[in-house]
Design a protein that fits this description.
single chain, about 180 residues, mainly alpha, 6 helices, about 75% helix
């Protein structure tokens, strides 16, 4: 019969303690994974939600679009790029041209702001693309002669670049590069 030794008892406790520590560490790790998943899900939900609420409501867009469609640039009825004559007309110093130019600038600024939010990661790019790809790409292509002229006249090549980058990324099925 073997004799009892305190070191044997200590070895048993050490083994049980080591096993318990490993189990607790594993459970803590799994909880941290679950917390990270929960935080990521909340972050993604917030981005998707902001895609649906960041832009002005459709009636606000509609008001500007109706005004621009009733003008000489025919924003909604248009099927081609602005002509050189239409771009020149936008820069005339007449009350009508000035009003159209201001509304068009405001409209493009709304689109630019939304695209900046996409690039900054505040808006989910997939939700934004699903909702606005056709509208944004169409208006970008049609208004590009005006945008180019504004960039040239103001010597500001950075004007409407978020709009341009997001539309181009959607055309190539790439995710917009994030600015942050």
């Amino acid at each position: 019969m073997s004799t009892f030794q305190w070191t044997d008892l200590w070895s048993v406790f050490a083994g049980v303690g080591g096993l318990a520590t490993a189990i607790i560490a594993y459970l803590a790790y799994r909880q941290l994974e679950a917390m990270k998943t929960s935080i990521d899900d909340a972050k993604n939900w917030n981005k998707i939600n902001s895609a649906f609420s960041y832009l002005p409501k459709s009636h606000e867009f509609n008001e500007i679009e109706q005004f621009l469609n009733a003008s000489f640039i025919k924003l909604i009825d248009r099927t081609s790029k602005l002509t050189d004559a239409e771009v020149a007309q936008l820069f005339e110093e007449t009350p009508e041209a000035n009003e159209v130019k201001i509304k068009l600038k405001n409209y493009l600024n709304l689109l630019e702001g939304f695209c900046t939010a996409v690039e900054m990661g505040a808006v989910d790019p997939d939700a934004a693309k699903a909702m606005y790809c056709y509208k944004f790409a169409r208006h970008y292509e049609e208004m590009l002669p005006y945008i180019s002229e504004v960039r040239t006249k103001l010597n500001a090549p950075e004007i409407f670049t978020s709009f341009e980058r997001v539309v181009n990324s959607w055309k190539t099925n790439e995710s917009p590069a994030k600015k942050y």
